[in-house]
Design goal:
seven-stranded mixed beta sheet
């Protein structure tokens, strides 16, 4: 049974940092493109970042470039999202996702197709 479980969310002031983790079981993180998407109440789902299966390429949505960093620890089978210089507009539920074509989908603006995803972790940034 495949599970991806996110953790690390919380309440932080603007300018602060959080590190999200996504622990995977039943799948191997370097067998898939892995990524993060987010959804805020009343807003459309948005792809945030992805890392290719090989780990050699990454993609970030423009609004987080230079602030967020995706990484993967194959030995721990865990995906991370380091979020710095957080802004109130980053407030959302953040979800970990896995799909063989995730980065190709995200770069084309398709954020609703994931083979696997988790239950999410809430990130709230206060002004």
């Amino acid at each position: 049974q495949v599970q991806v479980v996110e953790s690390g969310g919380g309440l932080v002031q603007a300018g602060g940092s959080l590190r999200l983790s996504c622990a995977a079981s039943g799948l191997t993180v370097d067998d898939y493109d892995m990524g993060w998407f987010r959804q805020a109440p009343g807003k459309e789902r948005e792809g945030v970042t992805c890392i290719s299966r090989s780990g050699t390429s990454t993609w970030y949505v423009d609004s987080v470039k230079g602030r967020f960093t995706i990484s993967r620890d194959n030995a721990k089978n865990t995906l991370y999202l380091q979020m710095n210089s957080l802004k109130p507009e980053d407030t959302a539920m953040y979800y970990c996702a896995a799909d063989h074509r995730l980065c190709a989908l995200y770069t084309r603006g398709y954020y609703n197709t994931h083979h696997y995803w988790g239950q999410g972790t809430q990130v709230t940034v206060s002004a």
